[in-house]
Amino acid sequence: MAAAAAAERARALLVPVADAQQQESAPAIVPVLPGRPAAARPTVQAPGAELGDEGGTPCPWCGTGNRPDRHFCRRCAMSMEGRPEDPPKLAWWRRLPGFGPRRNPWAGERPRLRSDWSRVLGWLVTAAVVALVITLAVDSGSVAQTVGDHFSKRVLIPPDTSKITASDSYPKHGPQLAFDEHDNTWWGPGFTGDDAGRWIQAGFDQPVDLLDVIISPGESTNASDIDSSALPQNLEADVTTADGKLHTQMLTLDPNVGPQTKALRFDNVVSVRFVIRSAYNASPTKQVAIAEVEFFGPSRGGGS
Known about the structure:
Layout: H1 2-13, H2 20-25, E1 57-58, E2 65-66, H3 116-138, H4 140-151, E3 154-156, E4 160-166, E5 199-217, E6 231-241, E7 246-252, E8 260-280, E9 290-298
Antiparallel strand pairs: 1-2, 3-9, 4-5, 5-8, 5-9, 6-7, 6-8
């Protein structure tokens, strides 16, 4: 009996082992990393009622009730004064750029930085526009005439041959040869050097309106004759109008032969005198020569 009891106690101390088939079918235990603690998410709650909200003024932006003494909504923080649905109509000058009311920036908006120079430039542009408007309003007739003259058709206006004179003339090269509509004849004062102060003049049988003048320096328009004489550089145009007034305009020519067009816009002109002030290629052996002078005015036929 003692031996049987000892064997029973020894058997009870043994750890039961499963069969091989059962061990193969059992799932393997894989180790895992420990979990990371997740931060608690904030809980969004609607604003609760406040004391005095019952019967209070609803927010014009979100409709939340607010106490009558609040200036900003307790929910959206917008002004309780009201939404600018229909802003009042401003005066016309307040609607111009730079003169209207300045909008206050919203929260999170950064106002644009403006330098002092940008303000000065803006005022200069505004002043220029105002000056242009005033000029057009006061002198609209003159501006319209200038625009019309620019696009009008030009016609040749020959002077009266009996009213063509000059201070001095070279033999067989009188002043009439500068207005004969031939570019191979020329007028010369008959003196060498720059001939400063010598002049040639053309008159008209009745007052005319001038727009341009075409002057051909030299003895002809051929490039081979460029060194045959001195060429006028600065010509002083003395224009006399029908009212007896004298108008002066300086014309600067290029050092080339051939026709050169210059603006000469005067109304009711009775005579034009060209005074030589300086010359190109002036020398003791050359005189200033002018091959042709032609006057042009607006066409009376209405062409453009």
